[in-house]
Design goal:
Elements (H helix, E strand, L loop, with lengths): L15 H11 L1 E8 L5 E14 L2 E8 L4 E6 L3 E10 L24
Antiparallel strand pairs: 1-2, 1-5, 2-3, 3-4
Amino acid sequence: MTPPDGGEPDSAPASVPAVLEEAMSARRVVRLRYVDADGTETERDVEPVAFTAVSLRWYLIGWCRLRNGARVFRIDRIRRAALLDERAPERGFDEMSPPPTDYVIRPLELV
């Protein structure tokens, strides 16, 4: 889309939350650029499973292919997210290791 001032088209990538929402609803693998608590940045492919909130922060729960296991990603630490063409396999919490005890996971209820 060309801006009203006639400048260069807006080529900004979609926002991280929008991409994650699409990945979840379409059940597609998402490639994340993630910065952990120590400041280490990694790129990883994640199969999204659920969203949760703890202490006013949002998290993505997913199967991390880099670590070959379930992981919890703080949304504000995801620097970039891109949908992949690959459909994510169906995963349930029963095949994932249990989340830390201070996490509360509830099903999403839309009203």
